[in-house]
UniProtKB/TrEMBL annotation:
Record text on subunit structure and interactions: Homodimer.
Keyword terms of this UniProt record: Iron, Metal-binding, Pyridoxal phosphate, Signal, Thiamine biosynthesis, Transferase
Pathway membership, UniProt: Cofactor biosynthesis; thiamine diphosphate biosynthesis
Iron is among the record's keywords: yes
Protein's job: Responsible for the formation of the pyrimidine heterocycle in the thiamine biosynthesis pathway. Catalyzes the formation of hydroxymethylpyrimidine phosphate (HMP-P) from histidine and pyridoxal phosphate (PLP). The protein uses PLP and the active site histidine to form HMP-P, generating an inactive enzyme. The enzyme can only undergo a single turnover, which suggests it is a suicide enzyme.
Family matches, as Pfam families: NMT1
Protein name per UniProt: Thiamine pyrimidine synthase
Domain SsuA/THI5-like: 37-249
Record's signal peptide: 1-24
Top-level taxon of origin: Bacteria
Amino acid sequence: MKTMISMKQALVSMLVVFALPTMANTPVSVALDWTPNTNHVGLYVAQSKGWFEEAGLDVDILPYTDTSSGTLVAAGIADFGVLSAIGFYSQRATGANSTAVMAIVQHETGRLVFNGEREDIQRPADLNGKIYAGFGSAWENGLISTMIKNDGGKGEFDTVTLGTSAYEALANGRVDFTLEVNTWEGVNSMLLNRPRRAFTYADYGVPDQHTTFLGGNSTWLKNNPETARAFVQAAQRGYAFAANQPKEAAQILIDQTQGMLSNPELIHASMKAIVAGGFFQDAGEPVGLIDGDMFTNMTRFLFEAGILRDENASLLTKMPNVSTWYTNQYLSIKVD
């Protein structure tokens, strides 16, 4: 009889356990701004280490598509996105429903580059009348003309829009100069033994900036503050790990992207350059902190250069109040 009762109790207990609802993690989506690269490493580290799951989240890292991450976030198709700074400023000026919640890259990684063997180019003013291989944005014209003019030149140059093929055109001499991301194309040029020389934007009157943000849909952030905080702090933890363990973080990125990254040497070299340059973290500050002055200064530069437009595609006539464009409220002040 005791055995029968024990078996009954065990069966009832099992039924109760199976009847209990399982607590599913909260789904969160994040869109990439390009194919996976070292700017995304913190997301993949957090995913691999289980930190998103630990925070009660089921995070879907969406693959890059022809629709920009900024558009996906503003439309509410993705909750979060990795956003290029210039793209974010431009979209936000039109009234896009997005907010920057973390600075992934703390400083300007871009630079103006030319063939290292060119003796006729010694300063930005020497670029007058030369051929620039571009990517089709208004930002490029404002940036380059400012650098040339601040060096005493007229700021006049010819542009051919080539996109990523600009680097091959530069290598074979079809164009005179272009722009590159130092921590990616710049690193790759060294691996390919294509020496380049460069001019740094900030040396010629262009303000420093956070070149990449993690941004969220503004309405979603308002309606889901605790989920937003959990996601941002887990991502922040991933980037903090990458800043301190670049070799392991690079390998995690390679492993997590399952063969999408065909050049492991570039990934490791890029991570090394990012950490050596202090691009993920400023000394004495938490990873991801958005600098309000830096944010405002770049917005002002874009406004004064006639780059920012409103929802009707008309140039802004008044410097926007950017205090609502970003927030540090979801960040952890201390990251382990």
